[in-house]
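[Meeting: bench + compute handoff]

Bench side (C.D.) handed over the final construct sequence. Compute side (W.E.) agreed to return the predicted structure before the next meeting so the bench team could plan truncations. Sequence as handed over:
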Amino acid sequence: MPTFVINAERRVIIWNRACERLTGVPAHEVIGTSDHWRAFYDEQRHCLADLVLMGRPEAMDELYVTHAEPGDSTHGLRAENWCVMPQVKKRLYLAVDAGPIFDEDGALMAVVETLRDQTEQKLAQMALQSLAVKDGLTGLANRRSFDEKLEAEWLHNQREGTSMAVLLMDVDHFKLYNDTYGHQMGDTCLKSVAAAIDKQVFRPSDLAARYGGEEFAVIMPNTDLDGARHVADRLIEAVRELRLPHSASQTEDCVTISLGAAAFIPSDQRGSGDLVAAADAALYRAKHQGRNRVVCADRVAELVEA
């Protein structure tokens, strides 16, 4: 197991072969120095063993992604972190244990730091977490993420007394597109449309999602109907500008979308579902009027043509 030891002066006294292989740093370059940090980071900072020697477990909050709550100081510290590994030129996720060594009088004389490469496990965990919140085809947030975000922002905007908006949109004549070009091209079309939508959703607080099938949605906290309409117009134009051929379309000769927008201030009389329903009704009217357009619902959910 990759291991190194620093003495009470925080100088390296042991740097084993496994540590050499992991870091790409030979022992003769670090033995007797305090430069052990150079094996893991491209900027000077403390390693876990340093914190044990310095008696500074509280610094783990700033330096490590995750860590065990420090208990009895005689048992050392445990943490995990991404390390840039300058010599081997790759980023690794390392699990680290730092244990103190005491002399016969109980004085701290050295610290042993052991390292475990957890990169594959961490990447697998991140992939699973991504699958839980993202749509597998388009990379946008999935329906579950949309529903959770909608409820959270509804409650927040209700407390603040501010308006929030939802946009719902469909790819026009998508069944005809699939029938004409095949399902594989249909998937490619959805990915292209999703990317165009995502590029127009600028604010970190907003969320673009695949709502289902060929339908997409955007949640926009702290946004009134004018602001929602402005973004909706950008989305319509962004998809048009893709110029994806659609010879079977009854609207234009390229892929287009229809969009419904709704915005109002959350209240006890209405729930988040009412906001989505208003946007959905506006989307239905946009399609009924010929598609490739935006229709807005007003604050009492009565539809008005955009």
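W.E. noted at the follow-up: The domain at 134-304 is CATH 3.30.70.270 (Alpha-Beta Plaits). C.D. will use this when planning the next construct.
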